[in-house]
Design goal:
4-stranded mixed β-sheet, elongated, alpha/beta, about 50% helix, about 280 residues
């Protein structure tokens, strides 16, 4: 008979929920141990490898739900010496995203090291052939290699945090610049694409030559923009009173940057609302 112990009630509840989600055929008895808290006894009616995998998977979910945040916070404060509460929370959120996220960006940033799989392999190694498993002891003494990689992940999250801060400072400087600048046009229509397409109120597309002439009249280098940037630079140079962006994705990065810089001056609408449909068939 296999024995598993959890000191915290919330962790044993989480463990059981995850366990039965993973394998509904498992049977166990739950009682309280005077020294070690919650005591789970498993009937060995399943093949050992199936039971071990279910237990290890459930323990990974318990750790991520109840131990990961504090482990990350400790690293941020004691290894990297951050003390500002807001900065700590942002780095914590970014690290959790790196560890547990499923989107392409976080998968790219974490490269070849999947901490979920590493933690699973550690738990499996120590569960195999054991008759008694103490979750608190596993976490305290057996996951040093995981912690080493977690420190690397926190470092990646700090780098990402710093990039975000630099971007926010950049956006804020542009926001101040366009606020002080006199508006050159009433309205500009913008069509999403690999690069933006710009249209005057009468539907005339602005050519690259026209955009370059507009940008040459502005000291864009003062706010970190250059003449070869064809999305944000033209808009900052024109500083229109109103910008209408048409497309399929309001969360597209170039579009979000424009919205963050120009704020209430920007409206986003579906491409079907673009008022010059004839222009869609023309090449720029």
């Amino acid at each position: 008979m296999l024995n598993v112990y959890f000191e915290a009630d919330k962790e044993v509840i989480c463990f059981c929920e995850q366990l039965f989600n993973y394998n509904k055929k498992i049977e166990l008895f739950w009682k309280t141990h005077k020294d070690w808290g919650n005591h789970l006894q498993f009937e060995e009616q399943l093949p050992a490898h199936e039971l071990n995998e279910a237990i290890a998977h459930a323990m990974v979910e318990v750790f991520i739900a109840h131990r990961l945040n504090q482990s990350i916070r400790t690293i941020i404060e004691e290894v990297f010496y951050f003390t500002n509460a807001e900065e700590i929370e942002r780095i914590l959120d970014l690290t959790v995203w790196l560890v547990a996220g499923e989107d392409e960006d976080c998968q790219f940033l974490r490269a070849d090291i999947d901490l979920r799989q590493l933690l699973l392999s550690i738990f499996l190694t120590h569960i195999q052939d054991a008759r008694s498993i103490h979750f608190d002891s596993l976490v305290k003494f057996r996951i040093n290699s995981f912690r080493g990689h977690l420190i690397q992940y926190v470092g990646l999250a700090i780098d990402e945090f710093k990039r975000e801060e630099e971007h926010q400072e950049f956006v804020e400087s542009l926001r101040k610049y366009v606020t002080r600048k006199e508006s050159g046009m009433e309205l500009i229509h913008v069509l999403q694409g690999e690069t933006f397409s710009f249209f005057k109120e009468n539907g005339k597309r602005l050519s690259r030559m026209e955009l370059r002439n507009i940008m040459q009249k502005e000291p864009l280098f003062l706010v970190g923009l250059n003449m070869e940037e064809w999305n944000l630079s033209p808009l900052v140079a024109m500083a229109p009173k109103k910008i209408k962006i048409y497309g399929e994705d309001p969360s597209e990065p170039k579009t979000l940057t424009v919205i963050n810089v120009f704020q209430e001056k920007v409206e986003f609408e579906p491409v079907d609302f673009f008022p010059f449909p004839q222009q869609l068939k023309k090449k720029p």
